[in-house]
Amino acid sequence: MMIQALFFLFVFTGGTTSNPNLYDPEDNQFASNRTSDLVLGKDETNTSETQVGAFVFECSWESILKKFDLRENNVKYTMGRPVKDHHHVTLVYMEMDIFVILDVKEADQTLVSYIWVYWRWNNEHIHWNPDQFCEQTHILVPAKLLWKPDLTIEEMTDCDKTAPSSLLNIRHDGWIEYRNGQVVDITCKMDFYRFPFDYQVCKISFKSIMHSDEELLLVNNRNETLTHYEILKFLQPESDWHFEMAETNTETVDYFGFNQTKIVYTITMERYPILYVANLLLPLLFFVCLDFASFLMSETGGEKIGFKVTILLSVTLMQFLLNDILPPSTGSVPLMVIFCVWIFTMMLLSLLVTIFVRYLIDKDQTCKVKKNHSPLKCCFAGIRKWIHCSSAEDTAEEDESFPKEGCSSPHTDVSLVMEKVYEELSEMKKSKYLLSSRTEDEKPGYWTRVAEKINKVFAVFYIIAVLLFLSVLFTVWNIDGT
Length: 482
Fold this sequence. Notes:
By secondary structure, this protein is of the alpha+beta class. It has eleven helices and 15 strands. Forms serotonin (5-hydroxytryptamine/5-HT3)-activated cation-selective channel complexes, which when activated cause fast, depolarizing responses in neurons.
């Protein structure tokens, strides 16, 4: 029985009664095979390593940085293009999305928008097998650790005030991705000839600042047939403009002696005219109607002139508003400006005609007053009164006493003289009437009738001019629109 127990112990202990692995004389620690396995598993967790057979895999992003020595002062990744041979061309694939139009400054001819850009290029120095790094296919690193394309927007007039993206996405196959949102203030040549029913075409061109096509080549990353939908799919609705079309094309230009490729995004947008029609166009038409209605007002008072002056000042205010919207210089004079100037001219002419008509009416009234208070008429009235008094006195004296024969009264002699004077003045008056009858200038109400005729003729001319001008303007508007 004792022998069987010893044999069983021998087999269990592997052929010896003592195991040196169970005791470590250096650190006086006992350890078993199971304990060693547990400790190994703990160390594996601390070092982020995975052991499969004879291979050990790193699972942290720091291991990838250490593998390629990605640090801030490494000139290999920051100083030049990421190519192993300088004859290799760096292809930069790019996309652009428009998120919102912040402002359209017509006076400055600039477009302010918020856009997102996406760049992608290959770095020949970076490549790893995801299987050796726990299936890590990409990592994010600070943008200052790697070279980036020196792309700029050709039409940009103001520097971007938003902070650029500080991260780059590195993929295991060596492709570097960069995404950035920015506010761009770009110049846009605008045509206001058909304002407010106008279309505007603005361009956003991306190109390299220093590299030629032999070093860096821009490539559109989108299908050109889907450009319109892709560019405007994130666009937020804007109150004043509606985007009709967006397209992209690639152009090659010669700048400072070397060729450069640039990607041009062309955006076509249409203005919503409702606001300008309600606030500018319709009030001008209403002012024309009011000015025409003023022809029905009386010419005797001064209210008509004051009414026309008020309308003229209102049109002037509209011109100031239009001046704030439109730029000081354009390729052609907008039709809206021509319309405002024409309305102002017609109203000014109407005011001048009203002033002239009022002058004629006042002249006619002045002639009537002078005619009723003429000195010759007063003289006739005095002579008639004096002769009548003298005749009455002579009659009374004759009734009281009879004069002697052959004698004449001094009153009678004076009466005869005055009668002769009266007869001569009457002849002069008749001669004056004969002369004045040859012309109609002094007829009562003559200038009033002339003023009424002028007023009627100008009213007809005003209506014909308005209808004719609006017809021509509408025709030109449609011809230029087509």
